[in-house]
Amino acid sequence: MIVTLCTIRYMDTYIYPYREFAAADQKFSSKGTIRMDRKLRDEVRQLHAQVCKALADPSRILLLYSLTDQPRTVGELAAINDLPQPTVSRHLRILRERGLVTADRVGQSVVYELSDRRIIKALDLLRAVIGDNLQMKADLASSVHESLKTTY
User: Is 88 helix (H, G, I), strand (E, B) or coil?
Assistant: First the structure.
């Protein structure tokens, strides 16, 4: 079964706008999208949660960004991010289990690389949203500060 992580939620039903979805119990709507049964929906929710948990630690996000340009070993990632090697290994294990990085043995070293470069685009998009939210809060704080200055 191929399940994509890009979903649209509409009235508590998850809709997958992709045709590469293979399941025995496909139900197509009039727009050609696939509606899932409850069990499959719960499995997809669990997959979403697992990926989000992997991205919940700032060190793991740094490691993903460090792998943007080229594959790297644990030692290289530890040096680049100024983290202890055991910590980097632990974070990489979590990222590997969640399917965000892959590991290949090269001689005595294990080299890690991004399993899908789109994760960096997703992280960049999230950073842009966070930046916009911070800007809105800063603008609000500034306007409150200005209104207080004119009031008193």
Answer: helix
